[in-house]
Amino acid sequence: MIDFTFALPTKVLFGKDQLKKLGTNIKKYGDRVLLAYGGGSIKKIGLYDEITKILRDEGIFFKELSGIEPNPKIDKVREGIKIIRDNDLNFILAVGGGSVIDSAKLIAPGVFAKGDPWDLVLKKEKITDALKIGVVLTIAATGSETDNIGVISNDKTNEKLSIAGKELIPAFAILNPEYTFSVNPYQTGAGSADIISHTLENYLTLDEGCFLQNKFAEAILKTIIKYGPIAVKDGSNYEARANIMWASSWAINGLLDKGKDTDWTVHSMEHELSAYYDITHGVGLAILTPRFLEYILNDKTVKMIKNFGINAFGLEDSGDDFKDARLAIKRLFDFFKDELKLPMSLRELGIDNKYFEEMAERQVARRGGRLNGVWTLNKDDIVAIYKKSLDYEK
Ligand code: NZQ
Ligand code: ZN
Fold it and tell me: pTM of the prediction?
């Protein structure tokens, strides 16, 4: 196990009755709020009315940034920074999912930046300071509610890139599973696939001695394998929504990769697809992950993949490692397709091979010539995995 530091600064307020603590928690950090949200789901579920009433009742001044889209764009970040500067705001409340929270995570340091916020993403300018962020989560998927990462797209350059920093970790997050009852089956499946992918990016490594982290990871995988399909079928199942919501935070808040070397290979490949085609992140991951595992299956990785099948899906040990590893990959593919009901080919998302070379080239250029995950991938490897993901035999 490699040496590590671990801190979990976000205060999590979990459950049905936590929103009443919103005002008190905001007032610890500010009294002039940017209320950021997406395309309107929070209005449909009545959350917008509840939150704005609390803000008014508590005497908290607020301005709104609405219409943040999935795969959030840099223009909305610029708009948010302008609203904050024009109105002298001092706190950001992000109400929504990863897209809203991630936008807040670039607005927060962007307010203090000298130049354009995209320069912070490109690391042309460093984060000097950031406003504090509070979250009311409405979809369980990205773990952005407790992690230090934001992912923003620049549609002019077809780039989707991350910014990370301890300053970006939300100060508090209100997690009420009931707010996710209205998430449709497609987004529920995609969110569940995203949580599985975060866990696998941390879990599937060749590092030794991280037994405890790996058992935590298996618990998260089993949680999604059990509850993901229940939530897809019955969106109002509180037990399922609650377990998925709590799993989403733990899959990516830093616990699982402690003492390990990880490179988030599948996420790199997916972010490139989202950048070019604006697809749903979790769906892209579901399509790529089984193909990636097939591609890297070899003498060194076979036991790791086989053990994933046994410990997460409860498969039998037949004594034939390759057979068991292939079965584990097939089980994962079938889980995404039949139980989370996700499309399992890029072709179904309207993607063909036109940009595969270009997308692979850009990734390796950013990462020193290769992706250094559990198995090193060069440009040709990435193109091959994209090609394998185009179709499958039904
Ligand atoms: O915009 P609204 O109307 O709110 O609708 C959203 C959106 O259409 C809808 N939704 C959210 N809560 C809902 C709801 N619909 C009904 N009822 C509710 N309660 O769901 C759709 C997707 O929302 P979005 O925020 O985009 O989903 P998600 O949380 O999956 O976020 C995805 C973004 O996060 C990035 C992804 O790449 C993608 O851009 N990620 C962020 C990470 C992080 N910060 O650590 C890591 C991840 O790996 C990921 O890259
Ligand atoms: Zn993800």
Answer: 0.98
**Among 50-59, 135-144, 331-340, 360-369, which stretch is predicted with the lowest mean pLDDT?**
360-369
Which tens digits make up the pLDDT trace of 175-233? 999 999 999 999 999 999 999 999 999 999 988 899 999 999 999 999 999 999 999 99
CATH superfamily, with its number, for domain 185-388: Dehydroquinate synthase-like - alpha domain (1.20.1090.10)
Exposed, middle or buried, 284 (CB in 10 Å: 0-12/13-18/19+)?
buried
| Residue 102 CB less than 6 A away from ligand 1 | yes
Q: Is the CB of 284 under 6 A from ligand 1?
A: no
Query: Who contacts 314 (Cβ-Cβ below 8 Å, separation ≥6)?
Result: none
* Structure-token match 């089984």, residue found: 290
Query: Is the domain covering 11-179 a CATH 3.20.20.140 domain?
Result: no
Rounded distance, CA 74 to CA 350, Å? 24
How much distance in Å is there from the Cα of 86 to the middle of ligand 2? 33
Residues 389 and 288 sit within 8 Å (Cβ to Cβ): yes
CATH 3.40.50.1970 residue window(s) in the chain = 11-179
Q: What single string gives the DSSP state of each residue in 11-43?
A: EEEESTT-GGGHHHHHHTT-SEEEEEE-SSHHH
Summarize the confidence of residues 88-95 as an average pLDDT. Answer: 98
Report CA(30)–ligand 2 centroid distance (Å): 30
Residue ranges, CATH 1.20.1090.10, the chain: 185-388
